[in-house]
Write a structure and sequence with these properties.
The chain is built from four helices and no strands. By secondary structure, the chain is mostly helical.
Length: about 120
């Protein structure tokens, strides 16, 4: 593995970890409605799964396994975006800005993951 790929791997592992942590901090600030609690559970699971599956991809034993796991990462990123769109912020501009930031970040992660898949396949 060359230094450039190692840097990309490290950066994306770190970026997905920071994203999952930021989602968790966002969830703590939300109104505690039944829907936010239930949707939040799904959001937390999906957001953490992006990075966890990317780590698994980097430990894969074959190219086919790597691509499969990165596809799972992309699927989880898409699901995360879905749950973020369902969260209720009760017209709180600060929370809406945070949600928009998270949606933008997860969409960027989706594009990065799609690019990795295209390059490897």
């Amino acid at each position: 593995m060359n230094d450039e790929r190692e840097t990309v791997i490290y950066d994306l592992e770190e970026r997905t970890l920071k994203f999952a942590k930021r989602v968790r901090m966002f969830m703590k600030k939300l109104p505690k409605t039944i829907t936010n609690i239930e949707d939040g559970k799904q959001l937390i699971r999906a957001s953490g799964s992006i990075g966890a599956n990317y780590i698994e991809a980097n430990e894969s034993l074959s190219k086919k396994d790597f691509v499969y796991r990165v596809k799972i990462c992309k699927k989880e990123a898409k699901e995360t975006r879905y749950w973020l769109n369902l969260i209720i912020v009760n017209n709180n501009n600060t929370l809406e800005e945070e949600r928009e930031y998270l949606i933008k970040e997860v969409f960027e992660l989706e594009k990065i993951l799609a690019s990795i898949i295209r390059k490897v396949e």
